[in-house]
Amino acid sequence: MFDPSLIVEGVISGLLIGGVYSLLAIGLTIIFGVLGVINFAHGELMMIAMYVTLVISNSFQVQPYFAFFLVLPLLFLFGVFIQKFLIQPVLDAPPDIQVLITLGLSIALQNIALLIWGPNYQSLQVSRNQSVIHFLGYVVSVPRLLAFIGALTVSGLLLVFLKKSNLGKAIRACADNREGALLIGIRVERVFLVTFGIGAACAGVAGVFIMPFFYTSPHIGLTFILISFVVAILGGLGKIEGALVGGLIIGVVESLGGILADESIKQIITFSLFIIILFFKPSGLFGKKLR
Amino acid sequence: MGSFFQIEEMDVVYRDMQVLWDISLRIEAQEIVSLVGSNGAGKSTIVNAISGLVPLIKGTILLEDEPIDGLKPYQIVEKGVVQVPEGRKLFPTMSVSDTLELAAYKGEAKRRKTQNLERIYNLFPILSARKKQVVGTLSGGEQQMLSIARSLMILPRLLMLDEPSLGLAPLIVEEIFNTIREINEIGTTIFLIEQNVYLSLELSDRGYVLSNGRVILEGPSQELSSNEHVKRAYLGV
Q1: Min CA distance, A129 vs chain B (Å)?
Q2: Has domain A4-280 been given CATH number 1.10.3470?
Q3: What ipTM does this complex have?
């Protein structure tokens, strides 16, 4: 049978990549929770961040982590821009209009990336950090560990911001009841701008942290949008804690699926578990009970 | 010099249907004015037009002779015109104290937050006891009190209450109405929108009767309660 240490290593590696999934899905879920908009361009936001990381690292021959300081504000502003000029005008329109807009944006961004960077898979040219550390006899990849720590730190800071700061509370108020927020004088349109900015920045930071051990291509977003949908729905759409836990679960399941079954059919296991959980908890792990 | 608050010849179209015709009303400082009428008469639309949630197609709304129609909802709140909405519109995942503090997050309300909070907890002791509780777990009466308290945190000059008695037990309704009177006694002007015609005419100084989007009667509340039409249509006597 299987070597048990292989399983443990699978769980560790799954948890580590799961942290990045969590952050990505938090971005998706906060946008949905506050604006009620499903951002189909979320994967492309991550793709753009991955290319920006690549360009910075390759042009200046620096470690990719430096890109964090540019990608975070850049993607935040890009998110604000998307909200202001694409989403805000159709916010009161039926949901299918919003879907078309974000879907259209996703296709446009893919083709812009294709135009600028070409169709090939690309990865970092700086000497890759292949180092590992040994933890209780198990091998842990350092770039993955850094990605995990980075993603969870950003997620944690975001949670604290939402719980403690006035702006964070205003964001939660808008998610809870938009009209109630308007009636106590909250500038809801501004809160929406910030929210889309935060959501986009989450995708951006996830892109920075995954780049050291991944590759990018104009269509890489499709891989990640699927994962982040699964994670966000599993956790309960709009629930940030749900996306956090959901990301770790999906990371581990995917990783174990690759070990226990064949790498090529691991997604069957992921989606089967997804369906089983939704069968018992239709609104997700952290979602409200449906009657 | 006009009234403290005035609506002049207002028409409102909501969802492609005209729902209000030629509405004129006035509220003097420190008054309690009630707006009564049956379900669907357009009462809530008047309040929502004042709050800037629904646009006017004709007429104007004046606060101390300055037009406030056309302002954004947050600007109208900044002017001190605050609504306690029908159905409360609270934030179910937030705590009671977070809800109250968020309402006082800027301006004069922020500067006076601490003393205002103390005053409100005195006015609603039950909310003080439930400070840390999540709003979604409060009872209906407690939620209505929180909704009023949330608006008071903004230091309103004109407090508009839309159906504060809706869905509450008679004893709780009486408590809420007593509180409204107390709020008025400390200097807040009140605009009370109610289906409960008897109670609101008893509490208010003057009243307006709305039917099918038009003001059909107005006058001192006592006169209205003895009006034959009001008796027949709303008081069931």
Answers
A1: 43
A2: yes
A3: 0.91
Minimal-distance CA residue of chain A relative to B51: A183
Q: Does A170 sit within 8 Å of B90, measured CB to CB? A: no
Identify the band that residue A269 occupies on the pLDDT scale cut at 50, 70 and 90: confident
Q: Closest Cα of chain A to B189: distance in Å?
A: 18
What is the band of A291 on the pLDDT scale with cuts at 50, 70, 90?
very low
Distance (Å) of CA A80 to CA A27, A181, A195 = 13, 20, 8
* Residues of chain A contacting residue B102, judged by C-beta atoms under 8 Å apart: 166, 169-170, 173, 184, 186
Residues 214-273 of A with CB under 8 A from B: none
**Average pLDDT of span A211-224:** 94
Nearest Cβ partner for A176 among B85, B91, B154: B91
Do B94 and A172 make contact, defined as CB atoms within 8 angstroms? yes
Q: Are B106 and A173 inside 8 Å of each other by CB?
A: no
Element (H, E) at B170: helix B170-185
Q: Which of A172, A185, A186 sits opposite B93 (nearest CB)?
A: A172
Least confident piece of the model among A14-28, A133-147, B193-207: A133-147
Is B103 an 8 Å CB contact of chain A? yes
Whole-structure pTM value? 0.92
For the cut 90, the answer to whether the pLDDT of residue A132 exceeds it is no
pLDDT of the residue at A31: 97
3-state secondary structure A130-152: CCEEEECCEEEEHHHHHHHHHHH
